[in-house]
Amino acid sequence: PGYHNLSWQFAKDNYWACNGNNASACEDKVWIDDISVWTGEGASNQTACAPGTYEPNYGSYSCLEADAGYYVAIPGSNFQTACSAGTYQPSADQSSCLDADSGYYVASNGSESQEACSAGTYQAAPGQSSCTEADPGYFVASSGSDSQTACSAGTYQAAPGQVSCTEADPGYFVDSEASTAQTPAPADYYAEGLAS
């Protein structure tokens, strides 16, 4: 496994001398594939499957490409490996996986694609398996974001994971960014929902 034969001898030749052409007496010199049976010296050597390919069986004459979502990093492999969470691979015959981009994530092993973080969430780092909810006082308006945005003065947001901020009500004010609550205006002060 992990190797394939480089060349074959397809016809009976001078080496065909195993107890009167009795194939059962030449088991170590008989090669079989899905088309024919032949004997002789067979391949003079074997070749390691290249990175991105593998071969799990004995006696093979070719290697298998790693599937999309999988990779084979080293030559001579007899198995493929699933891309881990946080990584993906859209193509076959690859020797490594790709990190999810910032603003994206890959939740499960063996993935062929990355997913954009939904609005209200973000991901600042590459190669991650989940997204982060926007903090109270912040929002994320669109999908695929790699950062959250602070609510501006005059607005606030009490809950996490939100896509917008709330304007201060009449009679209240918000005088700083990233606020999680509005403040009642003093008795002798009139606020129109804007910072003062």
Key attributes of the depicted protein:
196 residues; mainly beta; two-stranded antiparallel sheet; 22% strand
Blueprint of the fold:
Elements: E1 3-5, E2 30-32, E3 37-39, E4 46-48, E5 53-54, E6 64-65, E7 70-71, E8 81-82, E9 87-88, E10 98-99, E11 104-105, E12 115-116, E13 121-122, E14 132-133, E15 138-139, E16 149-150, E17 155-156, E18 166-167, E19 172-173, E20 183-184
Antiparallel strand pairs: 1-4, 2-3, 5-6, 7-8, 9-10, 11-12, 13-14, 15-16, 17-18, 19-20
Could you explain the architecture of this structure?
- This protein has 196 residues and is mainly β.
- The protein has no helices and 20 strands.
- The N and C termini lie far apart (75 Å).
Amino-to-carboxy terminus distance: 75 Å
What is the rounded Rg? Answer: 32 Å
Strand composition percent = 15-25%
Number of helices: 0
Uncertain residue segments = 6-19, 22-41
| Strand-pairing-aware structural class | mainly beta
Mean pLDDT: 83
Compute the number of strand runs.
20
Shape: rod-shaped
Order of helices and strands: EEEEEEEEEEEEEEEEEEEE
Spatial strand order of the main sheet: 1-4
**Main sheet record:** 2 strands, antiparallel
Q: Which percent range fits the helix content?
A: under 10%
